[in-house]
Specification:
0% strand, 4 helices, single chain, 84 residues, mainly alpha
């Protein structure tokens, strides 16, 4: 039985976006790969924090635009944490 976690649904959203989300999908795939390589669990929070760190350390305006767009989609599709 396959679970539909928020992270799995997020990945499916990006991949089903076709050409419209091609650059964002590449970024998201790279973020997830890097999180896994570093032995951390892939969660919406981990993805968001990674994207914010990349935004803060990138000066390439085109890449900044793609990172911001990716972050906006991730935040918009991430359910709010309970209890906050």
């Amino acid at each position: 039985m396959q679970q539909n976690t928020p992270e799995a649904e997020l990945i499916n959203h990006f991949r089903s976006g076709g050409d419209k989300l091609a650059a964002e999908t590449v970024v998201l795939d790279a973020v997830i790969r890097d999180i896994v390589v570093h032995g951390r669990k892939v969660t919406s929070k981990a993805i968001i924090l990674y994207l914010i760190a990349e935004i803060e350390s990138t000066s390439d305006v085109v890449m900044l635009d793609v990172l911001r767009s990716t972050l906006e989609i991730v935040v918009g599709r991430t359910p709010d944490d309970e209890g906050f």
